[in-house]
Amino acid sequence: MNEHTTHQRIALVTGANKGIGRATAEQLAALGMTVLVGARDPRHGEDTAAAVRAAGGDAYVVALDVTDPTTVQAAARRVEERFGHLDVLVNNAGISGAGPSAPLDVRDQVPSVADLDIVRAVFETNVFGVIAVTNAMLPLLRRSPAPRIVNLSSDAASLTLTGDPDGPFAGLPPVAAYTPSKTALNALTVQYANELRKDGVLVNAAAPGFCATDINHHTGHRTAAQGAAVVVRLATLGADGPTGGFFSEDGPVPW
Ligand SMILES: NC(=O)c1ccc[n+]([C@@H]2O[C@H](COP(=O)([O-])OP(=O)(O)OC[C@H]3O[C@@H](n4cnc5c(N)ncnc54)[C@H](OP(=O)(O)O)[C@@H]3O)[C@@H](O)[C@H]2O)c1
């Protein structure tokens, strides 16, 4: 056997204790990858790891709060010590910021100080957390023969779609936190892709579609497993695959 066939493929999925992250972990494990289930409460990650193992896969829980640099660094150390490298990073962890005091409708109110706290919290998780985790894991990803990074974006991150008065999001109230945070994540995806192209690290943003999960109180019309499919496709791209792109399962999404 050559080195390629014996290579143990390791995938880290942040926020993998439920929803699309859990479905992604299960699907990557079904492809033969060892899955590291990132969970800010490791007890909650055990369900996902147990489900993967019950299906014959390989999974370990990694305590990881993307907004907590201590857990981010500890997670990177743990991956380094146990596996020495990382093949796939899925930046899935995300929050909506929706709630009673979220600036969901900026037509009727100027965001208050409390509202801006929510905007900051959402950017802390959805954007700054991605930078922290990606930078911590990059040295490990660079040791992979086929490193892939997938960032969980949203169709609503598309300025083309949201800026179209007759587009699919025309009826939705403006939001100051979630949607702009995902647009920033798209911009970040392109920056990382440009920086890492020479190293063979393919970095793409995924739009999973509107999936029934806790983030939207299960109002989505797709399943988490359906949403995870495009994430898994981008996590397993061949060497000739795209980088710096934005994709749903139907193909490229306009920026
Ligand atoms: N569902 C959709 O329709 C949809 C559409 C477009 C994009 N997305 C994106 O897909 C991703 C997954 O969302 P989902 O729908 O599966 O929602 P979900 O069921 O609410 O899952 C969100 C996950 O993120 C984790 N998380 C939140 N803050 C974290 C932090 N600071 N550190 C680590 N983990 C954290 C949550 O952990 P806890 O359980 O500890 O809270 C949970 O595991 C998100 O980035 C979301 O924006 C979802």
Q: What features would you describe in this structure?
A:
An 8-stranded mixed β-sheet has the order 3-2-1-4-5-6-7-8, sandwiched between helices. The chain has helices at residues 3-6, 19-30, 42-54, 69-82, 113-141, 159-162, 178-196, 224-235, and strands at 10-13, 34-39, 58-63, 88-91, 148-152, 202-206, 246-248, 251-252. The radius of gyration is 18 Å and the shape is globular. The chain has 8 helices and 8 strands. Strand 6, helix 8 (224-235) and strand 7 form a beta-alpha-beta unit. The chain starts with a helix and ends with a strand. It has one domain: NAD(P)-binding Rossmann-like Domain (Rossmann fold). With 255 residues, the protein is an alpha/beta fold. The protein binds NADP nicotinamide-adenine-dinucleotide phosphate. NADP nicotinamide-adenine-dinucleotide phosphate binds next to helix 2 and helix 5.
Would you kindly provide a brief summary of this structure?
42% of the residues lie in helices and 14% in strands. The chain has helices at residues 3-6, 19-30, 42-54, 69-82, 113-141, 159-162, 178-196, 224-235, and strands spanning 10-13, 34-39, 58-63, 88-91, 148-152, 202-206, 246-248, 251-252. The protein has an 8-stranded mixed sheet with strand order 3-2-1-4-5-6-7-8, with helices on both faces.
